[in-house]
Design a protein that fits this description.
It contains seven helices and eleven strands. It is an alpha/beta fold. Strands 1, 2, 3, 4, 5 and 6 form a six-stranded mixed β-sheet that branches. β8 and β9 form a beta hairpin. The termini are far apart.
């Protein structure tokens, strides 16, 4: 008889703007996806950082540590939230630092060091607008983007950001049964535009209808943004794009 697969027990709490995630159990092939998805879920809420307390997480195989590199890479561009590993145990900390994950993810001994490490992260400005699933929602999205770009003193980014917002919002209205939730964030020299919906199907790039016609849908996003992606959430997905400024 095969032994039952036990999921991780994962607790989380807020700490000075960051989220401290405390997984308890074994990290292996059966719990890899659970931990990955949980960390991404907390990251897309845009805390100051996601800090993983490793003190009660057993990792029989070093290969499983790749989950942290994968999450760090995925959230690096958007939402741009740093991931840190907290390990009070010196021997465990040394193993983490010696592993490949130590090259990608900071490993710290306590919360004070973690908060000091993220204390120099750039300030963020955020705003969010819940839109109705109606034909005029893209006009509302464009107006919202132009107003924010003016308020944040980045008028040169307004047209591209509004075009991206329009495509993402219309994609939701046309291909899902949910209302779009638009959010903008300004950090350092980047502006991100993200739209969430309640449909779990990932966003797909549509090709131009013909050589004479302009590119449709997310092809416009690809042309304007430095990078874009589709990130699953517990209730659907977020499609996001990052615009460089300057």
């Amino acid at each position: 008889m095969m032994a039952a697969v036990l999921p991780l027990r994962i607790r989380a709490r807020e700490h000075r703007g960051a989220v401290l995630v405390h997984p308890v159990g074994v990290l292996d092939v059966s719990t890899y996806a659970q931990l990955r998805d949980t960390l991404i879920k907390y990251a897309i809420e845009e805390p100051a950082a996601v800090i993983v307390d490793m003190s009660e997480l057993a990792v029989p195989s070093a290969y499983s540590l790749a989950v942290f590199s994968a999450v760090s890479t995925q959230v690096e561009e958007w939402p741009g939230v740093p991931l840190l590993l907290l390990s009070p145990d010196g021997a465990q900390r040394a193993r983490l630092l010696a592993s490949p994950v130590g090259r990608f993810v900071p490993v710290v001994p306590d919360l004070d060091v973690a908060m000091h490490a993220i204390g120099s992260t750039p300030q963020r400005r955020r705003s969010r607008l819940r839109l109705p699933a109606t034909p005029d929602c893209s006009a509302l999205a464009r107006q919202f983007v132009h107003q924010l770009c003016s308020r944040w003193d980045i008028p040169a980014a307004a047209e591209d950001a509004a075009a991206i917002a329009t495509e993402l919002v219309e994609n939701v209205v046309q291909h899902t049964f949910s209302a779009p939730d638009l959010r903008l964030e300004l950090r350092a020299d980047m502006l991100s535009v993200a739209v969430s919906d309640q449909d779990r199907h990932p966003a797909v790039l549509r090709e131009a209808v013909s050589h004479a016609a302009p590119s449709a849908g997310l092809a416009i996003v690809t042309a304007l943004a430095r990078t874009w992606g589709s990130t699953p959430t517990p209730n659907g997905k977020i499609v996001w794009a990052v615009l460089p400024l300057g």
